[in-house]
Design a protein that fits this description.
heterodimer, A: mainly alpha, B: 567 residues, two-stranded antiparallel ribbon, 25 helices, 33% helix, 12% strand
Chain lengths: 249, 567
Amino acid sequence: MTTSLDIVLWVVIPYVCLVVFIGGHAWRYTYDKFGWTTRSSQLYESRLLRWGSPLFHFGILAVFAGHVMGLAIPKSWTDAVGISETAYHVMAVGIGLLAGLATLVGMTLLIYRRRTTGPVFSATTRMDKAMYLVLATVIMLGLWNTVGSSLLSLSGEYNYREGVSVWFRGIFTFQLHPELMAAAPLSFQAHGMAAMAIFALWPFTRLVHVFSAPLFYLWRPYVVYRAKSDRFGARAARPGWDRSERTRR
Amino acid sequence: MRVMAQMSMVMNLDKCIGCHTCSVTCKQAWTNRSGTEYVWFNNVETRPGQGYPRTYEDQERWQGGWTLNRRGRLQLKAGSRLKNLATIFSSPKMPSIQDYYEPWTYDYEILTTAPLQEHTPVARPKSLISGKDMKITWSANWDDDLGGSEHLSADPVLAKVSDKVKLAYEQTFMFYLPRICEHCLNPACAASCPSGAIYKRAEDGIVLVDQDKCRGWRKCVTGCPYKKVYFNHKTGKAEKCTFCFPRVEVGLPTVCAETCVGRLRYIGLMLYDADAVLEAASVTTDHELLESQRGVFLDPFDPSVIREAERAGIPRDWIDAAQRSPVWALINTYKVALPLHPEYRTMPMVWYIPPLSPVVDVVQETGEDAEAAGNLFAAIDTLRIPVEYLAELFTSGDTAPVTAVLKKLAAMRSYMRDINMGRDGDPSIPAAVGMTTREMESMFRLLAIAKYDERYVIPSAHAEQAHNLEELATECSLDYEGGPGMGGSGPFGEGSGTGTPLAVESFRTLKERQTSDTATDLNEPGARVNLLNWDGRGTPPGLFPGPGDPPDHGEPASGAHGTEPKP
C-alpha cells in the first residue's frame, strides 16, 4: 500500500533532484565556466592532503563502482553469469567496507585539515560547508548500511538488490516502485534521501569537477595549438553583418 | 616543413642593473589581484642565488620539463601520462606557498586609528594567506644582491660547478637574471595539463591558459621547469605570463620590455619548423640541444622558407618583420644569444646574452686595461668558474659556446673603444672572433645604441583580428574587491561567474597616444576626453566643459580653451 507520502518521498523528490542535477549542471556550465574548478588548496597545505585526498578520491571511486554493481546491474544478470548470492555478498561487503573505510578516513583527514589549517578554512565557502555536511552524512549512512545491515544484519535480512536497486532503476525506466523504498530499512531510506540531497546540491558546489575528469588527456597530443578560427575575427558577425563571400580562393 | 612564427625575446644581461622595474610594472599590470599576491610573471634573480621559487632549477627534486625515457623518446620528467593522471588528487611535486614566499601586507589602518599613546604605533606585517601577524622571512628576491651569502649554498646551478673553487668564485661575481615565461616551442606545462587548457597560439606561439577550460589540476606547475605557471589560490586556476598579448597584437612591446630601464630586452619574430621540434628536443646528449634548437629556426631570407611561410598563411608583413627581427640577428647572425637551461628540452624562446661584466670587473681589479682585447680574451679563458656557471645556465654545461659569446662581446668592447676614441678600428680584433668590421659595428649598434624601433620589431596582428582579440578571456587587472572590474565573489567561491572584459582602455588607442607627437586628437566635434587615456599633456578641449556649453552639442568646444582648472 503506497501512501501519498511515499509517492512524494520516492517519486516526486527523486525526479525533482534529477531535474535540478541535470539542469543545474547545464546552467552552471553555460554561465560559470570560470568557476568550474577543483578549487584546490594544495598550495596552502600539502602534508595532510597528500594522504587524505588520494584516500578519499580513490575510495569514493571504488564506492561509485560498487554502486554501479549494486544498483545498476540487476540481480538476474549476476545470477545468469553464475555469481552466487553468497559470493556476491562477500565481495560487495569486503570491497565495500575497504572502499568505504578509505573514503571515511580520507574525508576525516580532509575535514580536519580544512578546519584546522587557517588559510584552508578561510578559503572555505558556505556552499562548501553545506556540501561537506551532506556528503559526510551520505558516506556515513552508506557505511552504516554496509556494516550494520549487510554485515551484522541488525535490521533483519534485507537484500537491497531486490528492493532499493529495483526502485532506483525504475526511476530511469519509468517503472515506479515507491513501495519498495517504503519497505526498506530506515538506514537505507535515510541514505537514499541524503544521496538525493547531495545530487540536488551537486551542480552548485565544487563537486562539478567530477565531470571534468580529464581522461581525454591519455589520448590527446602533448602540445595543444589553437588558431583563430576565422581570419576575420574570433567572434561571429553581428546580425546583418555576415560577409557576402564566405570562402576566398 | 611546417613554418610557424614565434614571438620571442632576447635579454642582454650585461645591461641589467637589477632595478626590478620590469617586475613591478608587470605586477601592476597583471598580478595585483587577490589570489596572485605571490605571483611574479616577471622576476629578477641575483645569480648565484636560489631563484624564485627557491631551488626551482633542481629538477631532480621538482621534476619539471622533459627527459628521455629508456627507449630514447621524449617524456615528461614527472612521469608518463598515466602516472600524471594517477597523481592528480595530490600533485606530489608542487611547490608550496613557502617555497615561493608567504605574501603579506601591512596593517596601515592602525597608524591612523591607534589611540593616543606614548609610542608610535607600528604597521605590523599581516599574512595575505592566513590574515594573521607574520614574520617576514623570504620573498621573491630576498637574496637580492647577496651573490656570496649564506643563501648561496642552496643554488642548484652552483652545486653542479665544482666545489673546490667555490670560495674564490664567491668573491668574484654576481649578475642579474630577469625571467619571464619562456613561451617554449615544446612547452612542458601544456603537455602536463590534463584539461588541455594551456595552448600555444598558432599565429605567434604565445602560450596561454584558457581560464574557462582550466580545472585547477595543478599539473602545469610541476610540468614547467622554470616554475613560471602559477596557481591562483583564490580562483583555483593556473595563470602565467601572457607575453602581454593585448599589447603585442597592436605592435606594442610587453610591459616588462617597455619599462626596462636598461633597455636590455629585444622582441621579435622567429620562424621555425614545427615538424622539426620534437626531433630537435629528443637529441641524445644535452650539449647538442643548443645546436639542435638553432637548427629548428628557419632563415627568413631563404626564398623556399618564404614560400612555405606564405603557404602556411603567415602574412607578408610578418615575414618582413621576421627578417628585421633583432632576435633572429642575435641568435643566428651574431650568435651571441643563448637559451636558458636548454637541458630541460622545452625549447625555450626567451634567450640571453651572457654577461661579460663579471670578467671585466675582475680584470679591472688587477689593474690591467679591462678594455684591451688581449687581456679580456685571456681572462675569459682563465676565469673558468664564471664561465662554467654561465654554461650551466645557458648551454647545459658546455663552456665552448659561452666562451665564444664572451669573446665576441669582449672584441666588440675593445674594437669600438678605438673608434669612439677617434682612432682607427683594428680589423684584427673582429677577425679574431670570426666577424667582419661591418658586422661588429652593426652588432654594436643593436646592442649598445639599441634604438627603440630596432629593439622591438613587432608586427601587429591583422587589423581585422586585433579588435576581437583584445577582448579574449583572461582576467581584468582591475578586478579587485570593489574595483572597477567589479569581479568580486560569486555564489560558488572567489571569481566564479562570467568573465569581465580584459581591456578598459583600447590598446590601439594606447599605441596611437604613445606614438603620436601631440595629445590624442580631441579637436573633432563632439570628441570626449577619456580620463583613463589622458596622459596629462596639455588641457585637451572638452576636459572641462565651458560655462555656456550645452551638454549635448555637436560643435567644437571652443569655449573650453580659456577654461583653467579651478582649485
